[in-house]
Amino acid sequence: MDAISELAELAMVLKIEQQEDFALHEAFLKRRSIQDRKLAGLTWFPLKIVETGFGLGSYPFIVVERPVDRHKHYFQSAAPVSLFSAQTATEDESIQGTIGYVDESRMKISFYMDELPDWVDDGKLGVNLMFDSKTYDEMFRALNVLINLEGGRQKASRDIILGYKKPEYGN
Predict the structure, then answer these.
(1) How far apart are CA 49 and CA 121, in angstroms?
(2) Is the Cβ–Cβ distance between 65 and 51 less than 8 Å?
(3) Chain-centre distance for alpha carbon 64
(4) Which of 76, 91, 92, 116 is spaced 20 to 30 A from 123 at the CA atom?
(5) Using CA atoms, how far apart are residues 171 and 164, in angstroms rounded to an integer?
(6) Residues 6+ positions from 105 with CB-CB distance below 8 Å
């Protein structure tokens, strides 16, 4: 085995980890109650819409506020979220968006669609924090850079660090 083979194998294992991580997150959101998800910091519910409008590219946004029973949360700017309606027990109606900003009580969510669906005006809204693959994307990018090194000190350092080459010391 050489450095490229080892890094390619690492990329395959990392892909499996990403898929498992995604599956665990999705299963948690589907199998747990809204209250459990709130306590875990992954859901805000119920929400009050305090502002709507159109932002960059004429895409719609909403600013929501959560109630006083504020639990800790893991929402952060640029994270993917799902706005859902709890009008039905299954939470089937949902749309994906991205957080523009968030603080302890308010969140701005932008959506990449022409307009918001009508059910948004019906109340009983909540927002779930979705699986964010950005960290995995960066790890895959870094592995790709290491795999595709063509020469020079970086390639030599890669091979030394992975144990495929002995370090050379000049006198």
Answers:
(1) 9
(2) no
(3) 19
(4) 76
(5) 23
(6) 65, 66, 70
